[in-house]
Amino acid sequence: MKKIILFCLTFLFVLPVKAELTHPIDLLNAMMEAHKNRNYELHYILQHSDNIKSMKYHHALENNHEFAQLLSLDNAYETILLRNNAISYLGFNFTPFSLKGTKILDALPAVFHANFNELNHYDFVPLGKSRVADRIANVIKIVPSDSTRFSYTLWIDEQNYLLLKSELFDNQNTLLEQFRVIEQRVNDQFDNLIPQLKTMLLPPVNTQNSLVNTPLAWQVNWLPVGFKPISSSRQVIPVGQGQEEVESQLFSDGLSTFTVYLRSQGDEAFNNQFARQEKLILFTHVLGNREVVVIGDIPMSVAERIAQSVVFR
């Protein structure tokens, strides 16, 4: 009998044990990999001030190809689909359309798809463990190195590394956005989302009236440290009974982003005007007879300085 017990104890000790990740950057990278490579479904609440949305995000992977659906659970039907490097927008209140893209960015926190190895202007601080949606989570604070960007607190599932909760704070520690999972489902064996999306008839990608990464006749002369240009475009959009040409440049530090737009017509009444929509700041500056608009998850003073640094080449 003693030999049997000794054998069982020996067998238990040699079983491989999954090492627990404890370093913040390891947990963040594990979260990034889980979001990209696992089959899962998240039911969550997204809140900006008094505006609360109920959402469902469904993600699946087949042969290194990502499929995803983001569905609004309240009010009019709206859904966003990812298939074959195209993002399709469907709903009752607008004409369906598709754009080129590899990730659904709408109604998800910026940390969901961030590459944390490239974030050189943030510190990652562990805050212990907590509980969200009946799951144990590791809590990490993402602290910016200066006042030109905002901070995050993340709750990452201890077992599967999916994001369970995130909070975005401005420089005055005001809560701008909260993402909170109510229920999650993980199924790495089979996912019925893939056959559904493969057979759906979706609108073709719209490439008309748009030039991507085209040279522009203006530039931004001041950027916060760490922000880099990602893309530029020129497109014609309908305005009233006519059309208007709008140029834009997108900038990011790997987590925070902002876009600078140059409109063909400026209105002095909107010169140096601020507005906030959910977590985004909007600043308008008139430059000659053109209008510069900066939109992003950055402080107001930063948006103002960026807009006023725009010059023509």
TrEMBL record:
Molecular function via GO: antisigma factor binding
Residue runs in coiled coils: none
Pfam family, one: MucB_RseB_C
Signal peptide: 1-19
Keywords from the UniProt entry: Periplasm, Signal
Domain MucB/RseB C-terminal: 216-310
Family statement: Belongs to the RseB family.
Protein name according to UniProt: Transcriptional regulator
Taxonomic source organism: Haemophilus parahaemolyticus
Top-level taxonomy: Bacteria, Pseudomonadati, Pseudomonadota, Gammaproteobacteria, Pasteurellales
